[in-house]
Structure formats: C-alpha cells, structure tokens
Amino acid sequence: MRNFLRFNGIAVVLTLFLCIGQSAYGDTGYELWLNYKPVTDQKLLQSYMDYCKNIHFADSRYDKAIRDELDIALDKMLGVSVVEADKGEASIRMKIVRQKKLGQEGYHISSRDGRLTIEANGDAGLLYGTYHLIRLMQCGESLDDVDITEVPKIDFRDLNHWDNLSGSIERGYAGRSLWKWDELPDKIDPRYRDYARANASIGINGTVLNNVNASSKMLDREYLEKVAALADIFREYNIKVYLSANFAAPMKMSSTPNDAKRGGGVGQLDTADPMDPEVQQWWKDKADEIYELIPDFGGFLVKANSEGMPGPQDYKRTHADGANMLAKALKPHGGIVMWRTFVYNDTSVDPDRVKRAYKEFKPFDGQFDDNVILQTKNGPLDFHPSEPVLPIFGGMEHTPLQPELQITQEYLGQSTYLVYLVPMWRKFFDFDTWCKGEGSTVAKIAEGKVFKQKFTAIAGVANTGDDENWTRHHFAQANWYAFGRLAWDPMTDTEQITREWIKSTWTTDSAAVKVIEEMMMPTWECFVASQSPYGLGFTTRPQDHYTAGFKSRVNKEWKVNATGIGSDRTTAGTDYVSQYLEPNRSIFNNIDSCPEYLLLTFHFAPWDHVMKSGATLRSAFFDGLKKTMQVNARNRELWSRVKSAIDPERYEDVIERLDKEARDARKFYEEADSFFREASK
Ligand code: GCV
Question: From ligand 1's centre to the CA of 301, what distance in Å?
Fold first, then answer.
C-alpha cells in the first residue's frame, strides 16, 4: 500500500488566508458544530498533521462513514487528505479489540510516541472515537499523551421528530420537515446524510421520524418504503429508525374523531382492542412487514389515550395491555416499545393535572414486558420553563423509564429567544429522588444504575427543520448538541459541553469563547424569572405557547390575588407533594424548605414571604420579570465584542434574533408587569 502524505500546500495557504480574513469565510450555520475551520496555531497544526499523516482502518462496518468524515475534517482543518497505511506504519491506528467493558459503542483513544490508536470492542465505537478525535482537534487540544475512555451511559439515545406527513412540524420553529416524503424513496436529499453525521458526532443512535400525534398512514407500505430509504442512510452512521405508531392503525375506520383528522387506520379491522386476536395478529404482520424492509428497525413510540390519541383505554384495557401487545409483535425482531406517560386528559383521575400521569401509571409498575420502556417527560406539566421532576422517576421500581426532554423550545421562547437549556437539564439529572436512599438521582435512574433493567433509553424532541441552519436560531444548535452529549453521559460537565460547542461551532479564540459562554449561561434562569417565575407554570397563550396569556391561565393553572400567588399542592392543598418520597415530600411541603425555583409550583405563597436573599417574594418576583430584557441587552453588548472572531453572516443573523427577542421580551414584560400589579394590588 502506498504510504505517503498527500499534502496539499496550496490548500493550507489558501485556508489560512481565508481564516485570517474571517469575513471571506461565508458561513450559514449549515455545518453546525462540524464546522471544520483551518487550524491556525502553527505548532498545533504541525502536530495534528504529524498524527494524521496516515491511517490504518480496522475494516469495520463504519469505515466509509469514518473515512468520509476524516476526508472532510482533515481537508478543512489541516489541508491534508486521508492516506491509508499498514497497521505497523500508520500514525493513526483503528483497532477492534476484545474489551467487553467498552460495550458495543465505547472506545479508547490513546497516543504515545507520535502515534495514536482508537480501540473499540464494537464497530460503532470506532465511529464515535473518530468523532471524538476530530472534536479534540476542533477544540485545539493536544493529541500528545492522550488516554481517553468513553462508554455511553445510556443505550438508546434518540431524537423524536414531531414531523407530520404533510411536511409541517408540531412545535417546530425552524421551517418544514427534513423528510421529503413526496420525493422519497427515489430522491435522496443530501441533507439526510448530513443529519446523520451531525447526530453520530454527538452519539445519537436513534431517530423517531414522525410525530407522536401519529398518522396511521405512516405504517402504510408506501411510507414504509420511504422510511426504509432513510434507514439505509442512517444505518451507515449507527442510527436506527423508529416510528410513532397510531394505536388505531389496524382499523379501517378511525376510532376517534381526532384520528380521523390524522387519516384514519390503515388496516381492515373494526377494532384496535389489544385483547382481540385479530388485532394482535395485525400488529405481528405489520412488524414482520417492517422488519422485512428495515431489518434493524428500532421499534414504536406510542402516545396513547392522550390529547385525543386512541389507545387501549378506548376498549377498557390498560396501558400495560396496549404496550405489551405491541411489545410481543416486535419482540421476535428485537424491537422495543417506548410508551409515553404523558397522559392527563381524564380529569376523574385527579382534579390536579400534575398528579394524573403518576396515578395512571403507578398501578402498573412491573406489569410491562421487558422490551417496553415508559417514555416520561421531565416534568409533570408539559415542558414548561421550570418544573419539578415528575415523581414517576423514583416512583416506579419495576419499569424502565426513558426521560423525554424537549430540545425544541415550545415554552422557552421558541426560535426567537436565546435560551441555553443545559442548566435546566442539569437540575433534572441531578435531582435526588431518594427511591433507593440518598443519591438515587434521575441521572442514575436513566443510566439503569438504580433499578435492574434490560436496557436504558433517552429521548429529545428535536428542534430541527429545513431552514438552512437547521434550527433557525444559531444558538439553538447548542441545545441539540448538548442533548446528544448528555444522552451519552448525563453527568458530562456543563462547561465542557458549552465550550466544546462554542469552539466547534464558532471560534477557538479564547477570549471570544469566554464571552459567548457568558452569554449563554444565565439565559435559562432569566427566562424562568421573566416568564414562569418560581415554577409558576402556564403563563403563555394556549394558541401559541409564546405570547403572554395570563388572563387565560389565572384561576385555572394558578391563583393570584392581593394576598399571594401560586398553587397549593401541599398536603393541605391538592397533596401533589405526597407523590414524592421522603425527604422530598416534607421539603416541598414546607414553604420555608421548598426550593425557591419551585416555590409557586407547590405553594400559594404570600407576597410578603421572605426569600433567601432577604427580599420579599413581591419584590423578587417583580424584579425577576425584567431579567430576560436585561440579559438580552447584555448579550447584545457581549455579542458585539466578539464581532471580529465571527463570520459576518452568522454575526448579523444573531443580531437579528437578539433584536426580535428584545422586542418580544419587552412586550411580554409589559403585559406581565401590568397584569400582576393589577392582580396583586
Ligand atoms: C405532540 C404538548 C404539546 C403538543 C404535543 C404534546 C405531546 O401538549 O403542546 O404539541 O404533541 O405536548 O408531548 O404529546
């Protein structure tokens, strides 16, 4: 094999030139964090070029993806091409080794004497190890004496797309669906591969293509063939395809008016009763059909008996009956069922909505088949800016739970506000449920370390669309990136994720990195203070979940009057606190020990309640309402400081977003301030 470096001197000179004059380097944001910029530090550049002189591939099933990525990355960052070499001579060696502790996806990167090795026990580990290596170079890290072992903490790390077959996206704020159903399977948009690359680079290994408010048509042969075409591409990047299934799909007619709107069933039956043998057979046949087209199909995600979707309760059956029937159909093929616990419509379950999901599911703990996982939103309401952890976490000892986080900012300023979600997700993962004594955090439950379970999973509701930069707001890309990194390991350090993202997306200029980090970090807390202070909950209009909607929420979702504000969910109120284990129950129940970020979720708190700062709730509350405006003004100023380090196109785009945020935040503030002043007299 030829063993020489095809070093393209002209390319390096050119790329360095372009880098010095950033303005010449047009950027749309399409590359996301795979924005491979020429390495300008001469010492690092030389060192990287030495390491990347030639590569020995391990003959893995991801070789093509690995090679393609290295081709792009090395060319753009170093101005060199990938050159293959024999094992003994290569400066980068990829190896499959028998190391069970690395699992199927883990890897070990090490370097010594100018040579670097990526070892993995399973082929996918080499893919992820390669992305890690590239990331090190993007972040300007030395490759000398590297010794990194990474094993994902969660098995199935999925994006959930709420994309409809029509091309619209429920709660999508970045254009239309990425999936061009009318063109598939014949025409393959190159973007599908870039989507897979981006996800693989952060460890995402599954994607649910369609909305949980699923059209039955998704399971039609016609659409399954289109799905198979996508699966063929994603498979090259270790990404499995899943589908949201409509529970009434076996019926020829829709079982509910809502389902009718979504296209009705695709089967020939008159029922979708999970105890009916014909229905069971229908799902078995459907599973066989799917696996014939997509042998590594991941399984079904199901929203049942929630917000008008059909489900087993329509036939007086339980969630367990429904989930297990699907599980049995998928089991022979190795598929799983992700059954959602976002179920709250039946007011007879409990007058307080936040209590319903727990009450619906707790009685069935331990009754689900072993290829079922309960996909559970982080909070009991619905992805609000600040919520307590849903007590299903810690409350169900015999059922695997899959956290569902929302990357798309439905209640968090959509694609207008810069809101960095990691601080919120950190709180969620760090929450101690106490289910097996102190330290039984959500992170550990998600990782399967608290209860015995066969597999673990996590889902993030995607914020992608067909906008050129995928997420409309350039900073919203950070939430997608961070979700992937946290799905890989929920305990990944926030600072590390943030800096990696900034460096691989924007710039490695250390002063600029600091400034951008400073912009991002306080945004979630400020947003909460302005739009849902102290865990108040619903504050936006039901029509858009964006503009101020206090009038339609007051006295329904929470109360406010001259005495105080909030919801009494203590033992003297709706008793929601009792769904938590001790000591959380007592901590939340007492207004003095209740964490302030949840004060108004659990208490109707008097305006003169004294906060930890010494201020009254009244003054803290009204001061807080201004916070998003303040952080926005500060961010506008901070952003101007990094102008010289940022390409003009994205720089201006961000200014435009910040200006829109300023206008909308002021409007929200004015309405909030006047409403609460009036209401609190
Ligand atoms: C997909 C909320 C959203 C709905 C969403 C639902 C869910 O209610 O507003 O758009 O539907 O959650 O998660 O199922």
Answer: 14
- Ligand 1 within 6 A of 342 CB? yes
Tell me which DSSP letter residue 479 carries.
H
In a mutational test of the pocket of ligand 1, which residue from 161, 162, 384 has the highest number of ligand atoms less than 8 Å from its CB?
Answer: 162
> Given this structure, which CATH class describes domain 156-505?
alpha beta
256 pLDDT above the threshold of 70: no
* Domain 32-150 coded CATH 3.40.47.10: no
Q: Where are the strands (E) in 385-472, listed by range? A: 401-406, 457-461
CATH of domain 524-679: 3.90.1330.10
- How many A from CA of 306 to the centre of ligand 1? 9
Tell me whether residue 158 is exposed, middle or buried, using C-beta atoms within 10 angstroms of its C-beta: 0 to 12, 13 to 18, 19 or more.
buried
Q: Which two tokens stand for residue 184?
A: 């598939």
Residue 93 has pLDDT above 70, yes or no: yes
Structure tokens given for 309: 């979707």
Closest C-alpha to ligand 1, atom 2: 382
Domain limits of the chain? Answer: 32-150, 156-505, 524-679
How many other CB atoms sit within 10 Å of the CB of residue 59? Answer: 10
Of 168, 215, 307, which is best to mutate to test ligand 1, by the most ligand atoms within 8 angstroms of its C-beta?
307
Radius of gyration of the chain (CA): 26
Q: In sequence order, what DSSP letters do the residues of 286-314 get, joined into one string?
A: HHHHHHHH-TT--EEEE--SSTT---GGG
Spacing, Cα 480 to ligand 1 middle (Å): 19
**Does the active-site annotation cover 170?**
no
pLDDT in tens, 346-383: 999 999 999 999 999 999 999 999 999 999 999 999 99
